[in-house]
């Protein structure tokens, strides 16, 4: 698309030169013209006569709007009249609008009255762009009136955006059907609407100083889209530029930090109960095989290893320095570590920004930048990286190696991650605390985990993003090859922000995170336990090849609840083709129900479970299985678990590798059966029909976002 | 309100006499008049001239609508014209509408054209009533157009309903603010709208044969409400009357069934693996102290007890007969049991309606009715009632006595209930399978549990209700004294029903269950695990005295997630008054955060937890506490658990009895700490911030429904 940037530049510079942040309607219109955004025919009138003449030229009826840089809310000022049907009404209207505006604000500079062809019909929608504090420029779209303002049925994307993304926005609101002509309404020209959204995104992207763009209403008809009212605001001051290291620079540091040849522990101690003692013991007991250099000016030896008075005196190279000293001693020690050339400073101490000591935190970042040291923390429990047996934390070592990397912004959540992982024997590649995120943040970690073959899935707890756009870029790359799960805390605490436009008011909302994380292909977890369960289960499951989910259950009651859960999680219950239906029926009692769920009925022997599950795994039209087990004497829990594990392994060996999840209803023995199934790659849960389907749903959300289900 | 029932009767009888189920617009209007439902001024015209005359009398503009019993969808037939502004247009319009109707259906009988004053402005709403298959007559309300038809923003209540209930409906839609005048819209006359809803409810209640009543649109303005279009349909056949035993009759049977002096086991067996053996062993091993009479024609003695060839030959009275024989042997045995005067037949056998043998099921119900025997099942695992050590099931005995009664429609879900209860040591009064519900259903059980002092909370899994209205009546009574939790399975499977009106189409929806269960004061659980967790936790918690919830947390990260969960669960975070804030601050480090959540910060000693928790419990303005614990060396998990249990007990002894829930973030030791807390009345969960708040939210939902928070 061709945009006239120079014309916009001129309008903005003029407003800026006049010290204004609000653009007038004619200015807004000039900008729209420059970006190909259709507005109604209009003209500016400086007298009642001129208004009538313009109206006759445009064609009646018309709308009159006061034009004044000092009157932002025109309607409230009595500065808007609609539906003027003849020249006399226009003349009278002109006088009325001028009088109202003067009464409203006698000081206001008035440029005249805008005479606008009255547009209408079709659907009223709102299209806008604002600067989000986390994500920068974002575009909003919704149906106007009650839907967007009361129901808040609105959707957001990063700006700029492609036409395809814009088209996706049209389908992403709850009332999407309306634009397609639901219930006899006129279908909108969706292409024209998407085109206008794309143009607004381009405008916002090209001119960061445009703080808010608000087209409201836009009339969307079968013939096109017209922005009937335009409001634009300039930012008070320019957005600060963010400087980010290149991917290569990040990886150079991160690879040294996660696979260090040597680790110095600054503040190492032989005294039990001290953090510097816990870190030393965890490095040693965890089985880390690189050099460990305790640093302590008062001890010649700690836990059998020679100690050094400072990191400067360590004989060899040092990749990582773990800090276990009080905050006030950090700057001097970090200066030494910087000179020594460490790649990473693992900053366990608290007492920085989280206690109000923002200055102290700035100081250490400044020292680190000067020496090219990356800082993790401060105010963290440390980090684990199991492929290197590296346990640089003050907690206890974690040793169940596996595919998931977990990070947390909070220490408490980090402890919950550790406890859950240990209790469920979740296979973990890394557990990382990011704490105050003075330097290293989620983008850096994603960049490392993306190319880390030991990590197959990333799960992150976060309360904010320092650079939402950087995160989205990194996440978009990573999700192509591995799922990224995010628990965003503080969903409901954002509250309303003061804003000068409708779009601005709508944007102060968790929905922005929701839409943009989804756009990035991230799987958002609704709560802590969900994040942990997704992290545990997703790496176990192969990627499904398509949308056909089949439920096989021994308990009709579970089948109904599993179906409910499938719908809740956006999964498609396969319509079983007649030949397959017949094949299933051959294995189940005559009063059982084929269809989907396939109810094999209670009291069946192991062979019925085995035959039907094998059929589901081997038929190429089936893409994932949800199993419902009912505890009976005929098929006890562990018999079920062993047969499922065996059948899944046998079919996998034949190339039939599909996600299988299970819900086990029964007495307490089902818990051991679930553990056995998990150990054999089947995500299985006792006493719940929701969890197995929720983790399968999460896997599907990722697979769709990664584009793996399109074939 | 005064309703003219005779006028309605006359209209309905005439339509019925003419073999019609669709009422004409003038008929609908006469019914509206009789029930005080305002409709626009109108008249029937038989010629173009007459139409113009009527229009001038009513005042222009007008709407024309064809009147024909054979044309139901007038708009589709071209039989509606709106906005006719002068007599000439009305005359031309009359001819056009007649021609269109004839073209649409040349066979149609045409009564003329309805001339209606054109109403409009304000808000378009829909008010209707339909016959729901579960609940009978229900009333629907929503905002018209996109909101109700695409977003499905609609709410339902049982008909008839009070004016207060009707007013509640106005607030129960998502777009409720609109009617209050949100965003500059005209506020509706809410009293007039509620009044119209109440009148529609009365009409539907008075005339069960009115299958569908559809007022759409109703124009709601500040001046009142006018039903611009009325559509009414008669049922093809009358609804069958439901006969229910009286509360006294139900209780007489239920008390004998749950507290039997004697139990006969029909099909008792000495052979391990048989159901009749499991039942015998469970009765004996479970510690049941009444008489146990094994019935088996082939054995003189079973498990050391004398056996009888038939129940008729049992020497004493028999309160309960447990059936553990094949379906085909049931009728004869039931006949004998009936003659013997048993109160309840516990019908374990399958092979009835669930396998297509509906006839067999009808037969046993008929036998039971004849003898005044109540039947539980068939197709169930049996029932437990722990106060009597009564374990009449083929599972294993359950012995953790406590306050919750659980019922399930499905055997699989029953086994999940048992396993979960055992694994979590949930205190249970009863576990009951209802299976096919041939006779005893949830209403009967609620009636018993209501007056059972050993039951403090009821949790029910159900897939359908035989008599939704009976259930609501029973539930309404029970919830006044104890919570009723319902897991309704099949939420998403109902699909669309064929329907002749907008209201009818809207009603084919799980939303009906949702609204009406809520209206009954029932706490609906979103899934199986939620139901189980609510059942475990609710009886532990005292009833909160008010809405002020306070979060006290050692981990800021948990505090954020706990706040999110509070908002998700409709809980109100207390605004801490300045004096209380100061009192909390005295106990926490200067960089901690008072406010709410109260962040005492990590690394604090037990005394900080103790002081702040005690303050929260003792200050009468605080009504419930949510605790967030972070595992540290300074305050290990069991130290935290023991101090919380002690402080809660001490404060309870002083009369400060409040709900306390806790989220424990830490290594695996937190699991034992949670178990200890649960044993001491604090609902505590590891690795989740959602569950503790969800159970507290459920307790609040019940307390509000029971009217206990109004003081």
Automatic annotation (TrEMBL), chains A, B:
<dbReference type="InterPro" id="IPR032875">
    <property type="entry name" value="Succ_CoA_lig_flav_dom"/>
</dbReference>
<dbReference type="InterPro" id="IPR011761">
    <property type="entry name" value="ATP-grasp"/>
</dbReference>
<dbReference type="InterPro" id="IPR003781">
    <property type="entry name" value="CoA-bd"/>
</dbReference>
<keyword id="KW-0067">ATP-binding</keyword>
<protein>
    <submittedName>
        <fullName>Acetyl coenzyme A synthetase (ADP forming)-like protein</fullName>
    </submittedName>
</protein>
<comment type="similarity">
    <text>In the N-terminal section; belongs to the acetate CoA ligase alpha subunit family.</text>
</comment>
<keyword id="KW-0547">Nucleotide-binding</keyword>
<dbReference type="Pfam" id="PF19045">
    <property type="entry name" value="Ligase_CoA_2"/>
</dbReference>
<dbReference type="GO" id="GO:0005524">
    <property type="term" value="F:ATP binding"/>
</dbReference>
<dbReference type="GO" id="GO:0043758">
    <property type="term" value="F:acetate-CoA ligase (ADP-forming) activity"/>
</dbReference>
<dbReference type="InterPro" id="IPR043938">
    <property type="entry name" value="Ligase_CoA_dom"/>
</dbReference>
<dbReference type="Pfam" id="PF13380">
    <property type="entry name" value="CoA_binding_2"/>
</dbReference>
<dbReference type="GO" id="GO:0046872">
    <property type="term" value="F:metal ion binding"/>
</dbReference>
<feature type="domain" description="ATP-grasp">
    <location>
        <begin position="29"/>
        <end position="65"/>
    </location>
</feature>
<dbReference type="Pfam" id="PF13549">
    <property type="entry name" value="ATP-grasp_5"/>
</dbReference>
<dbReference type="InterPro" id="IPR013815">
    <property type="entry name" value="ATP_grasp_subdomain_1"/>
</dbReference>
<dbReference type="InterPro" id="IPR036291">
    <property type="entry name" value="NAD(P)-bd_dom_sf"/>
</dbReference>
<dbReference type="Pfam" id="PF13607">
    <property type="entry name" value="Succ_CoA_lig"/>
</dbReference>
<dbReference type="InterPro" id="IPR016102">
    <property type="entry name" value="Succinyl-CoA_synth-like"/>
</dbReference>
């Amino acid at each position: 698309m061709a945009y006239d940037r120079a014309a916009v530049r001129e309008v903005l510079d003029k407003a800026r030169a006049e010290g204004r942040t609000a653009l007038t309607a004619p200015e807004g219109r000039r900008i729209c013209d420059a970006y190909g955004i259709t507005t109604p025919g209009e003209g500016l009138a400086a007298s009642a006569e001129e208004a009538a003449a313009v109206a006759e030229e445009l064609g009646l009826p018309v709308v009159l709007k006061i034009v004044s840089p000092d009157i932002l809310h025109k309607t409230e000022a009595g500065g808007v009249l609609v539906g003027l049907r003849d020249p006399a009404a226009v003349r009278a209207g002109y006088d009325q609008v001028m009088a109202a505006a003067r009464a409203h604000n006698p000081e206001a500079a008035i440029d005249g009255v805008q005479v606008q062809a009255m547009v209408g019909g079709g659907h009223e929608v709102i299209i806008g762009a604002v600067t989000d504090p986390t994500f920068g420029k974002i575009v909003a779209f919704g149906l106007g009136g009650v839907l967007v303002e009361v129901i808040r049925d609105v959707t957001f994307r990063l700006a700029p955006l492609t036409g395809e993304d814009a088209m996706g926005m049209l389908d992403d609101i709850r009332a999407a059907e309306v634009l397609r002509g639901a219930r006899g309404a006129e279908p909108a020209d969706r292409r024209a609407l998407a085109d206008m959204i794309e143009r607004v995104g381009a405008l916002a992207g090209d001119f960061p100083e445009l703080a808010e763009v608000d087209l409201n209403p836009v009339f969307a008809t079968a013939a096109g889209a017209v922005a009937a009212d335009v409001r634009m605001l300039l930012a008070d001051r320019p957005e600060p530029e963010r400087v980010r290291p290149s991917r290569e620079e990040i990886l150079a540091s991160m690879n040294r930090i996660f696979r260090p040849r040597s680790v110095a522990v600054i503040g190492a101690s032989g005294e039990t109960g001290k953090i510097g003692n816990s870190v030393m013991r965890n490095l040693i007991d965890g089985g880390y095989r690189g050099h460990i250099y305790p640093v302590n000016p008062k001890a010649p030896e700690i836990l059998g290893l020679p100690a050094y008075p400072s990191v400067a005196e360590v004989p060899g190279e040092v990749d990582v320095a773990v800090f276990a000293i009080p905050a006030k001693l950090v700057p001097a020690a970090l200066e030494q570590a910087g000179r020594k050339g460490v790649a990473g400073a693992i900053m366990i101490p608290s007492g920085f920004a989280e206690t109000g000591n923002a200055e102290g935190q700035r100081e250490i970042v400044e020292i680190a930048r000067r020496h090219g040291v990356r800082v993790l923390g401060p105010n963290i429990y440390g980090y684990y990286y199991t492929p290197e047996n590296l346990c640089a934390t003050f907690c206890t070592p974690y040793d169940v190696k596996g595919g998931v990397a977990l990070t947390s912004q909070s220490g408490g959540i980090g402890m919950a991650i550790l406890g859950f992982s240990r209790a469920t024997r979740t296979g973990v590649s890394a557990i990382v605390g990011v704490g105050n995120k003075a330097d290293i943040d989620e983008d850096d970690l994603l960049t490392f985990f993306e190319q880390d073959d030991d990590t197959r899935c990333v799960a992150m707890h976060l309360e904010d993003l320092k650079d939402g756009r950087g995160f989205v870029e990194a996440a978009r790359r990573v999700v192509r090859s591995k799922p990224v799960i995010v628990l965003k805390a503080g969903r409901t605490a954002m509250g309303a922000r003061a804003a000068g436009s409708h779009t601005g008011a709508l944007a102060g909302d968790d929905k922005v995170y929701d839409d943009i994380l989804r756009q990035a292909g991230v799987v958002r977890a609704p709560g802590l336990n969900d994040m942990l369960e997704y992290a545990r289960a997703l790496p176990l499951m192969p990627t499904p090849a398509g949308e056909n989910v089949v439920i096989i259950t021994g308990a009709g009651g579970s089948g109904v609840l599993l179906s409910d859960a499938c719908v809740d999680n956006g999964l498609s219950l396969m319509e079983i083709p007649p030949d397959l239906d017949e094949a299933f029926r051959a294995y189940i009692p005559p009063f059982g129900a084929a269809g989907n769920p396939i109810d094999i009925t209670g009291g069946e022997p192991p062979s019925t479970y085995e035959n039907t599950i094998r059929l589901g795994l081997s038929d190429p039209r089936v893409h994932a299985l949800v199993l419902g087990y009912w505890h009976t004497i005929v098929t006890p829990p562990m018999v079920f678990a062993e047969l499922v594990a065996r059948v899944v392994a046998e079919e996998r060996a034949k190339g039939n590798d599909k996600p299988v999840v299970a819900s086990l209803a029964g007495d307490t023995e089902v818990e051991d059966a679930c553990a056995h199934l998990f150990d054999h790659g089947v995500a299985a849960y006792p006493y719940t029909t929701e969890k197995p389907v929720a983790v399968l749903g999460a896997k599907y959300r990722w697979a769709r976002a990664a584009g793996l289900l399109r074939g």
